[in-house]
Amino acid sequence: IFNHGGTVRAEEGSSIESIDGRAIYADNGSRTTFSGTIKDVTSNEVMKEAVNVGSMGSGFGGMAYYGSGNTVFTLGEGGSISDIKTHDGKQADVVLHLIGGTFNMEAGSVIHDIDVVGIADMNGATVNIAGTVRDCDLKNILFRMRGSASTFKLQESGSIKNCKTSDASIIYLNQGRPTIEIAGTIDTANKPALYISNNGSQKNGKITLTKTGVITNITGYGIRLEDPSRVTIEGTITNCSDYALQYYPKSNQSLLTIKD
Questions:
Q1: 142 and 112 in contact (C-beta within 8 Å)?
Q2: 55 backbone dihedrals φ, ψ, rounded to 5°
Q3: What's the rounded Cα separation, in Å, for the pair 42 and 17?
Q4: What tens digit of pLDDT does each residue of 69-118 get?
Q5: Alpha carbon of 232 to those of 17, 128, 145, 255: distances in Å?
Q6: I want to staple 165 with a disulfide (CB 3.0 to 4.6 A). Which of 37, 68, 138, 194 is the partner?
Q7: d(Cα 181, Cα 125) in Å, to the nearest integer?
Q8: Residue 179 near residue 149 (C-beta atoms within 8 A)
Q9: d(CA 29, CA 180)
Q10: Residue 87 and residue 166: Cα distance in Å, rounded?
Q11: Contacts of 55 (CB under 8 A, 6+ apart)
């Protein structure tokens, strides 16, 4: 599908599968809602839109979805994305490539069984998850935040479960000013749930683990914080093999608040 400024709605029972290249390309403020299945999509050498992830080089940007500008892609209730593959073993490839747009997951939607590649590269983009991400075994970050400002929200109904990566963390700030709100659950991961690095970071970011937010069963630190953002911990971090919270403030004063 090439959505060039239009509105597309795929209902439950529809599918895009066994695709060489990319399932959906969107630009020019388009709106796409997909409540069906996207599966068995493999990168190729032909489609040129790519994502640069530094030391890993350049990868295929968005096998399931590529969105630039003020686009919105919603994985609706009952929708699923799975079995998205790299054709040449590049861990820099990503399922979703978002440049300034928004990706929503409604409650009852799922992304699952993704291997090697990252889930989303967010360049000044917004990700809002009320569904479930589960059973992924990656060599890339699941959700990489970059650009001047990006937003990641895990709603109370949202969850990230049983996911592994050989990279730094589940959610990673690569640069910019983040807005992160964890109100749902991150359960069972082999790396920190959240790593806010000081790599090109900007002041006045806001990171919140809300009262309903839970980070549990983590190998290593629950959260690693280096960026000069204001951080509020109201929820639960439990059963980590290392410290629940590692804090390396780069500002002249602590910006971390832990509440009862």
A1: no
A2: -60, -25
A3: 10
A4: 899 999 999 999 999 999 998 889 999 999 999 999 999 999 999 999 99
A5: 42, 19, 19, 8
A6: 138
A7: 14
A8: yes
A9: 24
A10: 19
A11: none
Q: Hey, is 85 helix, strand or coil?
A: strand
pLDDT in tens, 148-169: 889 999 999 999 999 999 999 9
pTM here? 0.95
> How, if at all, do strands 50-52 and 58-68 pair?
antiparallel
Amino acid at 163: C
Contact 51, 95 (CB under 8 A): no
pLDDT, residue 206, reads 94
CA 98 to mean position of chain CA atoms? 10
Structure tokens given for 88: 């040449």
DSSP 8-state class, residue 215: E
Token duo for residue 185: 């659950």
Cα 105 to Cα 151: distance, rounded to the nearest angstrom? 14
